[in-house]
Amino acid sequence: MSDAHKETLQRVAEEQFEQLAFMFPVSAEELPDGPPNFAAHAKVGFSGPSAGRVLLAAEGQILPPLAANMLGLDEGEPSEAEQTDALKELLNVICGNLLPEIAGAEAVFDVQAPEVLDGPAEFEAACGRAGAVVADVNLDSGRARLVLLADAR
Amino acid sequence: MHAAGRIWGSGRLDNAKDPSECDPMALNVLLVDDSGVVRAMILKTLKAIGLPLGEVHQAADGQQGLAKLEGNWVDLVFADINMPVMNGEEMIERIRANDLYENLPIIVVSTEGSQTRIERLLQKNVKFIHKPFSPETVLETVKEITGIET
After folding, report:
1. Tens digit of pLDDT for each residue in B98-130?
2. pTM of the full predicted structure?
């Protein structure tokens, strides 16, 4: 996987945060110092011309505005289930828009249902895998990280 | 539109509203998506664009969608593709296999990016909206497929 894939992953993710949830990218300098504190992790698998998965980690403070903006809530906090559902849908849309950018518009992929991970272990392992494409998204409400793992068939 | 929409209805349940109680222009809508957030987003968009809504039915997969369709009058279907139990493509095939639903307006709302698969879907007499979608896209597509003016 090349740097071009990393740029594509980051751009597609930023676009979907923006278009789905009106959450806009900021520079890393605008965020607090220190490592990100990811509180939620999700993954979505795909198969087709290549098979693999996209994983997403997000800081906890991202989740309420993500769900509230996607649902168009004017008042009140989204429930935990709504926050989880919003995270999964965001990942689904990122994956769905990413694959044709990488494999071309004629490639047919089957995208599985996204799922929330119990903890960070699978995500952290994916980050360390050879060939993993890792991209960070910095938002005014917090940070997210994406990992693309794909075999080369 | 209401009366025209009813031609593809399969029948009514006893608990369905009497037609005389309904807004004659209102559309009964079926939302089929395994994500509650997406169903909520579509519904909010339909309200925002001023679509006259009658009954709104929701289903989390294709099988549930078919059951809702059998038990209710539906004028317009929004369907995802990737769903558990029964995916949207199979649900649409089953809908179209029933003569009653031959012309039922169906709008696929999906992240699908493959032109090959999109073309295959369009051959089933459906419209396609790519996620993420804008209210303007939904409005134009609904107008195009139903002929309704909002």
Report:
1. 999 999 999 999 999 888 889 999 999 999 999
2. 0.86
From residue B148, give the alpha-carbon distance in Å to each of A105, A149, B1, B31, B127: 32, 45, 7, 18, 15
Task: Kindly provide the residue ranges of all beta strands, DSSP E only, lying in A21-117, ordered along the sequence.
Answer: 38-47, 52-59, 110-111, 115-116
pLDDT tens sequence across A64-119? 999 999 998 888 899 999 999 999 999 999 999 999 999 998 899 999 989 999 99
Q: How many CB pairs under 8 A join A and B?
A: 63
Spatial separation of the C-alpha atoms in residues B63 and B86, rounded to whole Å = 6
**Which residues of B fall within a CB distance of 8 Å from A71?**
37, 40-41, 44
Distance from CA of A134 to the nearest CA of B (A): 22
Q: Are A143 and A11 in contact (CB under 8 A)?
A: no
Listed in sequence order, the residues at least 6 apart from B101 whose beta carbon sits closer than 8 Å to its beta carbon are: B8, B10, B69, B95
Instruction: Say whether domain A3-152 belongs to CATH 3.40.1550.10.
Output: yes
ipTM of the complex: 0.85
